[in-house]
Design goal:
4-stranded mixed β-sheet, 4-stranded antiparallel β-sheet
Length: 390
């Protein structure tokens, strides 16, 4: 039906290498990801072969050091890659973001020996990671987590349950936050746990309204033993590591949200310019034209916001407030834009024959993961007005 093909996003990239990288990503997205996205999401199929391809193409470690198999790319480039992947299929874009989050503790706080031993396989060796912070009784209040790690000579014994874990049951390694000391944030330590460790198991994936191809599951640790060489950072530093990782991870969610929103806008523009009513395209009617204009404006604003935060990060400057703003604005934008896309398509938008309804279902989770948007508002307010008084 559409008679106007969407145009690729006109990206301002810092180098020729980055432009070649985006071209590669678009080729993979167009030929390997998008054609199967709707069918595989409907079937709840996780595309492990796509992640293998991305690893072989050097796309699973973009913001990390090339010495260990990374891509040496600035965050402003990495995030635009995520946006392109998420526009093709959110399961893939979000999956790359989560893998990057899971690799962060080792890449940033690990010792040289740990990085040499583990990072090459994580960044370019086909492995896939998961990040384990949330638990059934501690989501937004992550500092109250109950999973414990008890020292036994030169080993740690981890016991507890993590919840809402993306890639739970399919990951090859888990970055796990566990309590090793006092109550509260100072008693938490980070560990790198291999998926084949004795006592580690995953529950059946949650049944979700969207992103059905991305497994989200509880992960159980029943006396899992890991050597002290798999402790990441100092004892008691795990919560600070987790928060630092989430500042960067929230930018990944923001970029994925803009990718989904852009895909929904492209679908809406294509439909509106091709659908005839009253003898002319429905895009001729001012009500719809203004909707499209508002959608495009919010997407551009979101893209500018996450790129501003990324450039602060790349410059070594504080960016936590801007990351929270980007996550908040971009995910709210994705929800509004996808909802409007369904409206523009009318009855067709409510059917699975068009992707608009899938985009709408997928957008909702982005307002929840890696800190709900209510938590983002708390973070932003603390930067503006200081901590809450008690």
């Amino acid at each position: 039906m559409p008679d106007r093909a969407p145009q690729p996003v006109d990206r301002q990239l810092p180098t020729d290498e980055a432009r070649e990288l985006i071209s590669l990503v678009r080729d993979i997205a167009r030929h390997e990801i998008a054609p199967k996205a709707a069918e595989e999401e409907d079937a709840g199929r996780f595309p492990r072969e796509v992640f293998t391809l991305l690893s072989e193409s050097g796309l699973l470690g973009l913001p990390y050091d090339s010495e260990y198999g990374g891509g040496d790319q600035p965050y402003e480039v990495y995030l635009q890659v995520l946006e392109e992947l998420a526009a093709a299929r959110l399961t893939v874009g979000l999956g790359v973001s989560v893998h990057t989050l899971a690799s962060y503790a080792l890449a940033t706080y690990g010792t040289k020996e740990q990085q040499v031993e583990h990072l090459p396989a994580m960044l370019g060796g086909g492995l896939l990671g998961a990040y384990c912070l949330s638990e059934p009784s501690s989501g937004s209040d992550a500092a109250s987590l109950r999973t414990k790690a008890v020292r036994d000579s030169d080993q740690w014994v981890i016991t507890g349950t993590k919840a809402w874990i993306t890639h739970g049951g399919v990951a090859d390694f888990y970055t796990v936050m566990a309590r090793t000391g006092e109550e509260g944030p100072r008693g938490i330590t980070a560990f790198l746990v291999p998926a084949d460790a004795d006592g580690l198991s995953a529950a059946p994936p949650e049944k979700k309204m969207g992103m059905k191809g991305s497994p989200t599951a509880q992960v159980h640790f029943d006396g899992v033993r890991v050597g002290d060489g798999r402790r990441l950072g100092d004892e008691g530093a795990g919560f600070a590591i987790a928060l630092s990782a989430l500042d960067s991870g929230r930018l990944g969610i923001a970029a994925c949200a803009i990718g989904v929103a852009q895909a929904a806008l492209d679908e809406a523009v294509g439909y509106a310019t091709g659908r005839q009513q009253f003898g002319r395209p429905i895009a001729d009617f001012q009500g719809l034209r203004f909707m499209l204009a508002d959608m495009a404006t919010q997407i551009e604003a979101g893209r500018a916001l996450y790129l501003t935060a990324a450039r602060l990060r790349d410059a070594g400057r504080p960016f936590a407030k801007q990351a929270a703003m980007a996550k908040l604005h971009c995910t709210d934008t994705a929800m509004k834009v996808t909802t409007d896309a369904v409206q523009i398509l009318g009855g067709y938008g409510y059917t699975a024959d068009f992707p608009a309804e899938r985009y709408m279902r997928e957008a909702k989770v982005l307002q929840i993961v890696e800190g709900t948007n209510q938590i983002q508002r708390m973070v932003i307010a603390r930067h503006l007005a200081g901590p809450e008084t008690r």
